[in-house]
Structures are given as C-alpha cells and as structure tokens.
Amino acid sequence: MRGRAPAFLWFLFLAALAGWLILTANAGPMVNANLTDLLPGAQRDPVITEAVGRVKKRFERNVVLVVESDRFEDARLAADYLGEQLRESNQFRALRLRYDRDMVWEAGAFYFPMRFQLLDHKARTTLEAGDTAAFERDILKRYFGPGSSLSSEMVAKDPLLLLPSYLDARTSEAAGRLQPENGYLTLRAQGKVFVVMTGELAETPFSFSVQERLVPILEQVRRELPEKFNGAQILMAGVLAHAIAGTAQAFTEISSVGLGSLLGVFTLLLVVFRSWLPFGLSTISILCGCLGGFAACIALFGQVHLMTLVFGSSLVGISVDYSLHFFCDRFRSPGNWSPKLTVAHIFPGITLGLVTSIIGFSGLVISPFPGMREMAVFSSAGLAVAYGCVLCWYPVCTQRLKSPTVQRPLAWTSTYIGLWQRRWSWPVKAGLAVLLALVSVGFLRLAAEDDIRLLQTLDPEVVAEVDRTRALIGRNLASQFFLVEGRTTAEFLEHEERLTARLRELEETGQVEGHAAISDFLPSAARQEEDRKLLAPLILDEDGLLARVAQRVGLPDNLREAYASAYAAALETPPVGLEAWLAHPVSEPYRHLWLGQTERGVVGVVGLRGVFDLPALKAVAASNPEIHFIDPAGEISDLFSDYRRETGWLAFISYLLVALLLVIRYGVLGGLAVITPPVLAAFASLGVLGLLGHSISLFNIMALLLVLGIGVDYGLFFRETGLVHASTFLAIAMSALTTLLAFGLLAFSRTAAISDFGLTILIGICVAFLLSPMAGARLPRNSD
Amino acid sequence: MSRLALVLAVVLGTTSGAAQALDEQKTTLSDISGQLVHGDMLCSDFEQEKHLQALARPLLSSGKLIFVAGQGVLWQVLTPYPAQILVRSDELIRWDEDGNAHKSSAGKVPIFRALSRVFLAMFRGQFEVLQDTFDLSATQAAGTWRLTLIPKDEILATVISDVRVAGGRHVEEISILEARGDQTLIRLRNPRVDGCRLDDTEKTYFAR
Predict the structure, then answer these.
(1) Residue A696 within a domain
(2) Considering its fold, how many domains does chain A have in total?
(3) B2-206: which CATH architecture?
(4) In terms of Cα–Cα distance, which of A469, A541, A531, A527 is closest to A496?
(5) How far apart are CA A441 and CA A454, in angstroms?
C-alpha cells in the first residue's frame, strides 16, 4: 500500500538518530543542571574570564557544615560521624574536620624567622612617621598589660615582640570567631556548641553524581543525628545547600507539571475522540520530537541543559497541535473521511505553523544566551520531527480508525464562531472593549525587573539555614571581589599592596567593611626589605629602642646582643617569596585567594566583606590595568537587562517577519487578520501582568515569542482550511487547552523566572485562542 | 549465698563510696560558691606580677577591673602604662591610644581561652562549667578556701601546669603556673559588689 514507504523510511531515520545518541552517550555526561551555565559570560579579556571561572568553580564547590549541640562531646561525636559518612560518599575532594596541628604555633614557626621584616600596618605608619616613642609604648604595654600571651621563650627571642604584634594585627583583620578545641574548629554561642567542618566537592554541586550520592547521605544523617547524639543537628551553607533545594524542587515541579499536563491531555483526547489511538500517536510523536531536539542539541552543543529539557519538551508539546488537526479533521466530513484527504487538507496549515514557530524560535538562536540557543534548537528540531511523524505515520496508522459519531463539542464551538461571523456581535465588541481598557491600565503600571533572584529558587528554610550558618562562622564574604595580576609573583604582591592601601582608606571611611588579601599575610619582597630597614636604628643603635626596652623590662644583656646579631643575620637573608608561603601549612586558610598561572603571568583574588559603595570600588580598578573589579551578581543582572531589551527587539522583529509572511500569502487584510490575535494577546499578557503588579523580565519576553508562535498557528489553521469550520475551531480549542495544561501550570513554579514565563503564556494563549476566529472573520462560513 | 552477699556488699560499698566522694566534692564547690558574694557586677583593684624566667625582675602592673556577668571582664591598667583590655569567653579586645579596638590573636590560643573561662566562672562562682576543662580540687578552712585546677586537655597541659585560686567572700588571689616555669600572680584588692557600676566610657568598652 502507498504511504508505507515514507513511514518506514521515517522510522529508519529516527532509529538511526536514537542509535547515534546511544553511542554518543558513552563519551560523557550529556545533561547539565547548573543554572548559571545558561547565562553568557560578560564580554571581557579571556585571561580574566578564565580566572573568574576558576573563582566561581572554587566558590560553588565549597561546603560548610556545622553540627550544633548542647554539649561539646555530642557535637564532636556527631561531627565525626557525619564526616565519616560524607567521606564514604566519595564526593569530596577535601573534607576538613580535625585540626590536629596547632595553627597558632604553625604561624609562629613560619613567621618567626621573618619577624624583622613583618611590620603590621599600624607599626609601619608609626615608624615611617618617626614616632619611635609611640612604638615603644605599644611594646611596653604588651609587657605589662594583663591577658598577654607573654612567655620567656618569646621574650628571649623577640624582645621587641614584633611577631606577636604582627600576628595580632592579622587576627584582628581576619576576625574569625572559630577556635580549635581538642582539634575541632569550635564556636560557643547562644548557649550552644557548634563544631565546624569545611569541604570541597570533587564536582560542581549541580552534578548528578553529587545529587544522587551525596544528597541521600546528607538527608539520612540529618534524620539520624538528633537521635544518635542527643539532639545534635546539622546546619549547612554553600552553593550545595541551594543546589540541593533547587534541584529537588525543579524535579518536583517538572514531575507535577509533566504529570498534570499528561493527565489533562489524555483525558481531553479520550473524551473528544473516544479512542486511545489519538493519544497514543500524539504521545509517540512528542517523544520522537524530544528525541530529535535532544539529538540536535548534542550535535550542535555537545550537551543539553536540564532547563532546556524541561522547557524544550514543553515546547515540543506544541506539536500535539498537528495531531489534533489531523484528528479533528475527521469531524469536518464524518461520512467520507479518509486519512489521505486529511493530510491534503491540513498539510498547508501545519507546514505554515511549523515555519512560523521556527521563525519565532530563531530569534532566540541568534541571541548570545547559551540557554536560549539550546532551547530554540531543541524546540525547532523537535517540532520538525513531530511534524514528520504526523505526515509519515498518521495516515498509515489510522487506516482502520472509524469515523466518530458524537459531535457535541462541535455544537459548542459552532456557537462561539457564530459570534464572529461577518458582523461582530455585541459580546465580541464588549469583550474587546473591556480587554483594551484593562490592557491600557495595566500597561501604565509595567516596570522592568532584572535581578538575579529571578533565577533563584529561594526556599525560605534553606535561606534561613544558610544565613544562620554564615552569621555563626562570621564568613560573610561579599559576592564581589578583585582580581590582581602580575607578571611575576613579586609583582603580583606589589600590585596587591597598592590595592589594599586604597582599600584601607575606603575601610576607614566606611565604604567597605574589610578585605582578605594574600599580601596581608605575605608582604612583597620590596616591603619586607623596607620594613627591615625601618628597624635598623631601633635595634642596632647603642641607646636605641631595644636598649631602652631591655632596660625597662629587665632583659639580660646576652639576650639583647643575641637579638641584635639575629637582626644583622636576617639582613643578609633574601626576603621570603610567595612560593614558600604557599607551600607552608600556614597559608592553608588563604590559599583559595591564589589562582596561579595565566598566559601572561599570575593572578590572585582579593576578597571583600560588606560592600557599601560599588562605584568607589569600580573606580579603584579603573585606574589600574592590573586590577579588575568583578561583580558576578551585578553582571548577571546587567545581562538580564541587556537581554530583556535585546529579546524584546527580537520578538518585535519576529512578529514583523511573521506578519510579512502572512501578508505575502493572504494579502494585507487577510495577513493582518491572522497576526492581530497573537499581537493583541501579547499586549494583553503584558497589560494583565501590569494589572497584577508583576514586573517584566526577560522571561516574560521569551514567553511572548511563544505566544506569537502558537497564536499565529490558530489563525493559520482557520485560513488554510479555507472555510471557518467548527472542526477547525475545535482543533484550536483543544490545542489551546493542551498548551495551557503544558505551560499554564508553570505559572505555579516557585522560581520567579519559570512562573513569569508560565503566567505570560497562560494569559497570552487564552486571549489568542478567544480572538482566533477573527482570522477567519471575512471568510464564508461552512454550515457543517 | 554468702559470697553473693559479699560481692554485692563490695560493689554497693564501692559505688556508694565513690558517689560519696563525688558528693563531698560537690558540697565543697557549692559551699565555696555559696560563700562568695554574688552580684551581676564586681569591681575591684588589682595588682599583677608576671615572673618571666627570661627576665631579671618581675613585671609589675596595677589598675582596676570590672566584671559584668555574661559580658566579660574589663581590665584597666593604670600603671605603668595605661591600657584597656576586655576579656570575653572567646575573644580579647585591646584599645589603642586613639580609642581603636583591636582583637588579639590571644583569643585563638587555647591557654588564653581556658584562663578567660576560669576568670568568668570564678567571679560568678560557677565552678561546674570548669570541670569540662580542668580537674578541680578544693580545700576549705575558717572562712577561706583554695581551689586547684589542673588541665584535662593534653594540649593545654603542655602549657599550663596549674591554676590556683584563693579567697573568702571574694576571689582574692589567682596564680597561674606555666609548664615552662613562668608564673603570673594576680591579687584583687578591695573587691566590691555594692556601688559597682559602669561609667559612660566603660559602657562603650562593653558595647563592643
């Protein structure tokens, strides 16, 4: 029988596609779940882009876990247990719980030989100003004051107490609240004991292996702890905490939206067509469409983002329209229906539908947004494949399908179309007037919104836990930071010192709270030499500072002489370089600030706390080519705003293109009649969003593109079938219902971006559907 | 039968004996605590002697201190070099001449924290909290008492040999003997609960 050959060929094509995908799957992971990968990077120097990538990667892999309990012993044991479980998950590159080494002692061991070249900021400014008396007073206060950790050992080897003074200044700046207790980093606050564990994940927290292996363990331990260790509890901070909550929620939403729409569509098809076949075939063509979209993305981009799968599959779901038109066509002439005639009848309509949809999506392909490009490719390819399925398989599979006898739905749609014939009736006019009024009011209230929080799923519980943890451990780093470059490590440190000098000024005036920089822990070679020179007269002069202090505190002469000769010997040794510091355990808490080699030198990070004056910080970087100010959240917000505008224009152009195409085919009036419903629908969704007090983001604009793609289809089907058939409107009604089931449900998402998207579609499709008979208004009515 | 009775007697005897010893210990500690004059605040003058083996003579200083329950101890050195230091359970803040506060790395040192906990507990008469960190032994005679604290923690024990506290209605003397032989002696003079209050400057120190 004819028609079998194309069906078979089409099957072969899809089978080959599936085979290719299976072969490719072995090459590596194909699905990515990190939301930020959907965003383009800011346009800048590749070296800096790469460095920012490294900071981001490190940042998102950091995990802080805190065990909270009433007693230290319970907290400690619970932390041991948690640590053991986490290690077994094999998801951590590093996990630190116990600090067996004495960190203070280690700092002493590293810095002691450097004591003559390590002045803290205050000591240096005092000495540079020549105020030896003030310097002396500070030293003597340390001797006589209470609470000082003075010991014979220290006094004998460093009678000017240079090292303790430097270490105190460092601690003061680091301002951490955690202290080692029996080797555990511990904090006592609010009548509780907290034991802190830090870890670095082996992979991004969005990866499936983290989600699959680590999350169940964490959940299990979270449940077990209170019982096993007298009410001990876990607190967590880090991107992981958000990633877990976000992904869990995404999956719940996907499955509930997916299940909801599937059930809805199934019921709808069964009720209207009284047969399993339409639902079965539609499902198969949607699945094949997803296969095609997936394959196209893998071929072009090498991977597919989870969000693309979600949105893309829904978009491919539009292809159910093609199926609907095929099956609804049977109502047109129930007596002498044949699949072949149907294909001929609906072919122009669904072809044009496909073309306009692809035009709608192609606006997104041009956008530099990786996520949108993926979605556009996925959906375009998916729709094309589903279209192929309808044309190649449906006629063969529906040979034996009997013509339906029940036509009640047709009666309803007939009535509605009746309102739109030739002269519009009063309900139509009244409806349009109300719509226009509402939309105009809403439009006046529209405002734009480009905040990064659109993308975040802010589970209040998780946010509270993360905030509490961060407040506890006092690690309240700002999301902004500086990158400092240098051709050599020595140069890097000098550039950094220039930056920190400026930052200290900003800290004094309260524009920034604090900073973390490597050069505060290892001064540049130049500065070490300067500091050493400043001390020369103080130590070497016969009646210098050292002599006076020694006399005042009763330091024996032999110790004083030994100190002077230690100083003389130190003058001969070269300054300590960054490499030595990095190799020593003392640098461990700050090593994350070091990024290492680039193609043109080295680069490191200067972290910030409490940023109150962004422009001032930007200005610091602007005057120094080696210093770069990075504001990731700000960049994303800027991107959102840029792309909102850009996508807005793309949407506008797409609407124009489609309108042009329609005018070419149907003439000016006909074309306008088809394009008007989706255009009005787009305006209506914006207006209603304004009325509801929503602000407009990129995601609303994206949805408008979809409203165009789908809304035009409705008009097209009226046009292409030549007459205003109630059967056509039934197909459109069903298609609108299925679209609403697929997208409208997204409006209930807790992620602002998705909910914006869903809501816009919900409103737009409703309006486009209700107005669609307008497209056929000037056509004669077929009284079937 | 008789053997079982014997075993029981021994077991019960020892346990009750141990319990009794523990009870006596508790009684002494709570006696001392009861003997101390309590108040949310305590003002006192102090004299400090630091004996460092490396130095030819002890370092002498004096001043006044104010203890505020739940807040910490403010030491105001008056001679020979005026200085203000606030000791809290987990941090130590010094003020320079310009009035700028500096946190000290001493707060990170286990010995410092152990000692600050001793101070805070003593002024309050809450000796139980010290039992996590120290073995306590106490003696009492004629309205005076003596406490000896020996560190339980091994790391702490390498630094501190013992801490001795003596007093009557108030803590009067604290002596810290370090493992290396350095010793710090603090004598409280004229401790008073009544009429002890913060002036405005002192309030700003505690507000940190």
Answers:
(1) yes
(2) 3
(3) Clam (2.50)
(4) A527
(5) 25
- For residue A196, tell me if it sits in a domain: no
Residues A740 and A672 in one domain: yes
Q: Are A40 and A172 in contact (CB under 8 A)?
A: no
Residues of B in contact with A182 (CB under 8 A): 153, 155
Chain A partners within 8 Å of B83 (Cβ): 141, 144-145
Residue A311 forms part of a structural domain: yes
* Tokens, residue A651: 């949407």
The complex scores an ipTM of: 0.80
Instruction: Collect all residues with Cβ–Cβ distance below 8 Å to A44 and sequence separation of at least 6.
Output: none
**Contact flag A177-B110 (C-beta cutoff 8 Å):** no
The residue from A598, A613, A630 where one domain ends is A630
Same domain, residue pair A655 and A624: no
Are the C-beta atoms of residues B43 and B34 closer than 8 Å to each other? no
Asked if residue A119 and residue A107 are part of one domain, the reply reads yes
Regarding whether A132 and A265 lie in a shared domain, the answer is no
**A135 and A251, same structural domain?**
no
Asked if residues B140 and B127 have their Cβ atoms less than 8 Å apart, the reply is no
pLDDT tens digits, residue range A553-589?
999 999 999 999 999 999 999 999 999 999 998 888 7
Q: Which residues of A touch B97 (CB under 8 A)?
A: 134, 137
What is the mean pLDDT of each successive set of 10 residues along chain A, which is 784 residues long?
Answer: 76 89 75 66 75 84 88 89 89 79 77 91 90 90 78 90 84 59 78 86 80 85 89 85 75 74 80 81 88 90 79 75 80 70 82 84 71 85 91 81 63 73 70 80 74 64 80 73 93 94 90 89 94 92 90 92 93 93 87 90 90 88 89 79 81 85 85 86 88 82 81 79 68 82 77 81 89 68 39
Nearest CA in chain A to B105: A168
The sign one gets for the Cα dihedral A43, A46, A50, A55 is negative
Q: Which domain holds residue A624?
A: 476-522+576-630
B50, closest residue in chain A (CA to CA): A144
Q: What is the pLDDT of residue A552?
A: 92
> Is residue A90 in a domain?
no
Of B52, B80, B181, the CB nearest to A150: B52
